[in-house]
Amino acid sequence: MRKLEDLQLLIANSVDKLRYPDYPAELYEPISYILSLGGKRMRPALLLMACDLFGGDVEEALSPALAIEVFHNFTLMHDDIMDKAPIRRGKTTVHEKWNANVAILSGDVMLIEGYKLMMQVRENILRQVLDIFNDTAVGVCEGQQLDMTFESTNNIAIKEYINMIRLKTAVVLGGALKIGALIGKADIKDAELLCEFGEQIGIAFQLQDDILDVYGNPEKFGKQIGGDILSNKKTYLLIKALELAQGDYADELNKWLSISDFGSEKKVAAVTEIYNQVNVRAYAENEMQLYADKAFKALEKINLPEANKQYLRDFADGLLVREY
Amino acid sequence: MRKLEDLQLLIANSVDKLRYPDYPAELYEPISYILSLGGKRMRPALLLMACDLFGGDVEEALSPALAIEVFHNFTLMHDDIMDKAPIRRGKTTVHEKWNANVAILSGDVMLIEGYKLMMQVRENILRQVLDIFNDTAVGVCEGQQLDMTFESTNNIAIKEYINMIRLKTAVVLGGALKIGALIGKADIKDAELLCEFGEQIGIAFQLQDDILDVYGNPEKFGKQIGGDILSNKKTYLLIKALELAQGDYADELNKWLSISDFGSEKKVAAVTEIYNQVNVRAYAENEMQLYADKAFKALEKINLPEANKQYLRDFADGLLVREY
């Protein structure tokens, strides 16, 4: 099996080679720009990995893998408009560098370019692959819509939250793995199990991200600790804490959610203290483990040699045991 | 052959039957909303017409025809954001009724739903149909970008303008006809000729629209006469007049383009007078005829019975001889 880092590097190099027309410049320059900002290229690498695991030819999976990366960057370009984000990977976002109209239209073309790349598969799996891509793409849009809706919604149930992160983050991982598996000539049952593995790992990963925002090691997490707390982001921790907190803790938590004029450090410390008191971290870790277990359960059922399964287990462990 | 009006009615009824999920409501309600606003359903009807002309089963072409209509409405939803248009077909636009974020994301899903519908063709033409759809979709985005760029560009050449309207308006007509022809089992050469016919007729039609804005009969044109003049829209007439006008006429025209505080009637009358003086209407009608001729030339080469060709000629005549 090829190392994940090697596959990521192969993607990075292939992304660098993607070329778009010069005209109209305002339509195509933003595409090259956002693709040049880098990133871990994890989603397309997973597609290649799945193909490789089933003994397929990684080269055959390259265009569909690039499709996943182009699609992912389309969602980033449009999400950044919606979230009014000024910065993406340390650089100015497209709608800030150009304008929102350019970001809308370039994003639209990226989605189409994603389809063009995804179609570069052999004839007998074309329809199947595109069906998966369609479902994935719709899922991501649904997830983004729910994420936006939740910003102004109270009383979100944990179940709804999990469904949102599943759609927004996890279905692409599952979809990429499923498409890669089919290109690698896996049978449909194994491709679906691998998809299930990816989706459940994706949910566990997102829950871990919620935990790390509060309890992570700032040097290793790479983001500001407490960022979610400061923006009142409805993470698993906040939703669960609102459910668990009673009496004074509930009042205190609601007070911090409602005031906008506060010292940052003070708010992070105070909310974290409430989280500690209601023991929300344990709930979150428990939930995360639940989804990791589901992933491993699906993995066991896949018809693959033990060494290949171990590769997937190691991958999942690497993803989920980021240092606290 | 089935009457065009019957095909339009079939589309209208089928659009009414399209159903989208209830959840998330903000993602799917705008789709049903914009599709319910009506319209002539000309593009999808052309797809059915092409299929019918080659003896194909119109029912088989219904989903791809709906794909064209859903795609067209996706472009309207996003264009309306970019153009800050408050009204579409007499009703509030999606970004006004909801907000821009909702219109971006619902539009994205519509594009994907377009692909899902377009994939409902028989196996042996799936790739070919999707290739045409991809090219069409990219073309429309390029056309919209050029249209926006031209708003703030001086010295647009007629050639560039024609290319813009070809991309923005005409390629969808050509693409719809080509896909319909393939579903109707036309051979690829005939499908391409019909595509050429549609594209050239589309350009002629758009040029006619430019002429009607100034010289149309207000009761029959259905839009405000001189609307393009009031908004300084770079139509064929304006671009050509800027090219033709010399001396005082040039100064006068540029004056009217630069002032924003004017009486509407006065501006329309003054600019129309300059158009008359430089005889721009004749140039425009000549150019329009040029593209109509190209369309009819392509039509003659199609391998179809004379009656079917006559049907297409009548269709083109109906489109191009709107009353002045």
TrEMBL record, chains A, B:
<keyword id="KW-0808">Transferase</keyword>
<dbReference type="InterPro" id="IPR033749">
    <property type="entry name" value="Polyprenyl_synt_CS"/>
</dbReference>
<dbReference type="InterPro" id="IPR000092">
    <property type="entry name" value="Polyprenyl_synt"/>
</dbReference>
<dbReference type="InterPro" id="IPR008949">
    <property type="entry name" value="Isoprenoid_synthase_dom_sf"/>
</dbReference>
<comment type="similarity">
    <text>Belongs to the FPP/GGPP synthase family.</text>
</comment>
<dbReference type="GO" id="GO:0046872">
    <property type="term" value="F:metal ion binding"/>
</dbReference>
<dbReference type="GO" id="GO:0004659">
    <property type="term" value="F:prenyltransferase activity"/>
</dbReference>
<dbReference type="GO" id="GO:0008299">
    <property type="term" value="P:isoprenoid biosynthetic process"/>
</dbReference>
<keyword id="KW-0460">Magnesium</keyword>
<keyword id="KW-0479">Metal-binding</keyword>
<dbReference type="Pfam" id="PF00348">
    <property type="entry name" value="polyprenyl_synt"/>
</dbReference>
<protein>
    <submittedName>
        <fullName>Polyprenyl synthetase family protein</fullName>
    </submittedName>
</protein>
